[in-house]
Write a structure and sequence with these properties.
- The complex is a heterodimer.
- Chain A contains 11 helices and 13 strands.
- In chain A, 32% of the residues lie in helices and 26% in strands.
- Chain A is α/β, with parallel strands linked by helices.
- The two termini of chain A are 40 Å apart.
- In chain A, the strands form 3 sheets. In chain A, strands 5-6-7-3-8-9 form a 6-stranded mixed β-sheet, sandwiched between helices. A 4-stranded antiparallel β-sheet of chain A has the order 11-12-10-13, covered by helices on one side.
- Chain B is globular and about 75 Å long.
- Chain B has a two-stranded antiparallel ribbon.
- By secondary structure, chain B is mainly α.
- The chains are: A alpha/beta, B mainly alpha.
- At the A-B interface, helix 1, helix 2 and helix 3 of A face helix 1, helix 2, helix 5 and helix 12 of B.
Chain lengths: 316, 284
């Protein structure tokens, strides 16, 4: 564990009643890094981030952000972080510029308002009342207020949920701009492509536990050697597949007449599969040989029942 | 960034709490001014009552040697009603609504100390109350012949300060116990209006009112405010204009309000307001 980490979490637990929302998470984030918590809804991402921000208490574990315990919630700590939460409001009657000046006033150091407006793409809208902004523009002002105090660590909780594709691209560009300025960023997302585009490092969590950690490329690489063979056969053949599974070199799953084989030897396993089918005079419908997408990797990791927005087409 | 740099807090000092408090009061006043409906109910509504009372009672002058306008008796009461509306009603409703809008959640993530935020809310309520009371008194003096005894200005000012501070605390308590922003106006009016009637803000209860009405009025804080503020304007009062027992009664209510607010105040939107965390609503 490096002493210079911007943020260190160790053995973090938080329960709501009987539900263990966060169940023993440990990770650290280096200065200047863009770190993503990826997982389905209810995985514990938001709870974790809220504990890091000082918005929520923890049951056990140690947390240190910029040398502070967020649980102590000191003004000196909040002076150095920026928070972009889901579901926060803003005074309807203030103009964009007034809101930035007003919230900026409580920080020891602040970015120039015009620079922030430029950075989040709200230049020219400074004199507009906030209730006349569109949904996407409101999210931008949330981001603007998150960075007005020139934070060392910025927390982004699902920054693009509900955005249309072009707004998401623009949001990603904003985050890239902040990365270039050296801001450490912790973001949560359930979009695989978002994490791939933005994050230097990813922690995949499900059911409050870490299931994988690494760069987006490493996560993909861990399964990159494998190819998937998929096929459908008549349900009544289900009982007879045991001898097939014994012959295959890869990991096979059968569910309701659907077969999937993950293998590093696709040629040999395909041959064994087709030979087996021909012996039984079975027609393998929808037979295909595919490379797994990153979504497949992710669904594998979180148990396949995660609510995910895969974005990149059909994978069933 | 080196290890020392990442751990060190900002060399620039945080803005002084006092400066922030002044800033917060100005900001809350600005938000108030931009919502015409709240300005109307807080400031114009009591003036409409003044107009109505004057029209009903006419230009009656009471008394033998020294004639006194009838407005001398109801203008101080209406001024107190304005002050209580600007603090209790206004603070209670607006704070509960800003909480449900997620504004308090945003504030909580900034380095602004929480007491400074709430101090801004209270300071703004008191300054709006001061504006409303002055407006009422000036209209009363110019149009309806209300007289102010300059020797008794200090007791009137101190009564105003103790009263508005206490009603501001009760306003924070109201926001703290209101289940949602939507229900807060109903709660505020359901407590304020009956209290105004038993406190003889609108008309006297008569020489021999029902006993329980009197007791309820004597226990609640508004009648103490009305009576203590009236004394400096009372043409038949011969003392210095101070009502220490009534001030104490108001202050007790203020302390009670502050205790309730301290125990129950929430910064997170209420569940079901549309801005509560899904995780909380789902219990996860």
């Amino acid at each position: 564990m490096s002493a210079s980490a911007a943020l260190t979490v160790s053995g973090l637990c938080r329960s709501y009643g009987d539900v263990r929302a966060v169940d023993g998470l440990s990770f650290q984030v280096e200065p200047g890094e863009v770190f993503a918590l990826l997982g389905p809804n209810g995985a514990g991402k938001s709870t974790t981030v809220e504990i890091l921000e000082g918005h929520r208490s923890r049951d056990t574990g140690t947390v240190e952000v910029l040398g502070h315990d967020p649980g102590a919630s000191s003004a000196a700590f909040r002076d150095r972080i920026g928070i972009v939460l889901q579901e926060v409001g803003i005074e309807r009657e203030l103009t964009v510029r007034e809101a930035l000046v007003h919230y900026g006033a409580c920080y020891s150091r602040r970015r120039p308002v015009d620079e922030v407006l430029e950075l989040v793409g709200l230049h020219g809208l400074g004199d507009r009342r906030t209730h006349r902004l569109s949904g996407g523009q409101k999210r931008r002002i949330d981001l603007a207020l998150g960075i007005i105090g020139d934070p060392d660590v910025l927390f982004l909780d699902e920054p693009t949920t509900g955005f249309d594709p072009s707004a998401r691209r623009q949001a990603w560009e904003m985050v890239d701009g902040l990365r270039a300025l050296g801001t450490t960023i912790v973001l949560t997302s359930h979009y695989m492509d978002e994490v791939q585009a933005l994050a230097d490092r990813v922690l995949v969590i499900a059911g409050g536990r870490a299931v994988a950690e690494g760069t987006p490329d490493e996560l993909r690489g861990s399964m990159d050697r494998e190819t998937a063979i998929r096929a459908r056969f008549p349900l009544e053949a289900d009982g007879t597949v045991d001898d097939l599974l014994g012959r295959l070199s890869g990991r096979a799953t059968v569910r309701g007449g659907r077969l999937e084989v993950r293998t590093e030897q696709p040629t040999a396993d395909l041959h064994r599969l087709t030979a087996w089918a021909m012996e039984r005079k079975l027609e393998l419908a929808d037979l295909e040989v595919v490379r797994p997408t990153l979504e497949d990797v992710y669904l594998d990791l979180v148990g396949g029942d995660g609510e995910v927005d895969v974005g990149a087409g059909d994978h069933g | 960034m080196s290890e020392l740099e990442i751990m060190a807090d900002r060399p620039g000092r945080l803005p002084s709490p006092l400066g922030l408090l002044v800033h917060q009061i100005g900001y809350q006043n600005r938000v108030f001014r931009r919502v015409p409906i709240s300005a109307f109910f807080t400031l114009a509504f009591p003036l409409m009552f003044l107009l109505l009372f004057a029209a009903i009672s006419g230009d009656i002058f009471i008394g033998g040697g020294h004639e006194v306008s009838a407005a001398q008796f109801y203008v101080p009461g209406l001024a107190v009603f304005t002050a209580a509306s600007a603090t209790y009603t206004n603070i209670g409703i607006s704070t509960a609504i800003t909480r449900d809008e997620g504004i308090l959640r945003r504030v909580r993530g900034t380095p602004l100390p929480r007491w400074v935020y709430l101090g801004g809310v209270v300071g703004s309520g008191v300054s709006i109350a001061a504006f409303g009371v002055l407006l009422m008194l000036v209209v009363g003096m110019i149009v309806y012949g209300v007289e102010v005894d300059l020797d008794r200005v200090l007791p009137a000012v101190i009564t105003f300060v103790v009263g508005t501070a206490s009603f501001a605390m009760l306003g924070l308590a109201l926001a703290a116990v209101a289940p949602s922003g939507q229900s807060s106006p109903a709660l505020a009016q359901a407590t304020m209006l009956p209290m105004a009637f038993v406190s003889e803000v609108f008309f006297p209860l008569g020489d021999d009112p029902v006993r329980w009405l009197q007791v309820v009025g004597d226990v609640l804080p508004l009648k103490a405010f009305v009576e203590a503020f009236f004394t400096p304007f009372d043409p038949y009062h011969s003392g210095s204009g101070w009502e220490p027992a009534l001030l104490l009664r108001m202050a007790c209510w203020g302390v009670f309000g502050a205790l309730v607010a301290a125990r129950r105040f929430r910064w997170e939107p209420s569940v079901g307001s549309g801005r509560s965390r899904r995780s909380e609503a789902a219990g996860v």
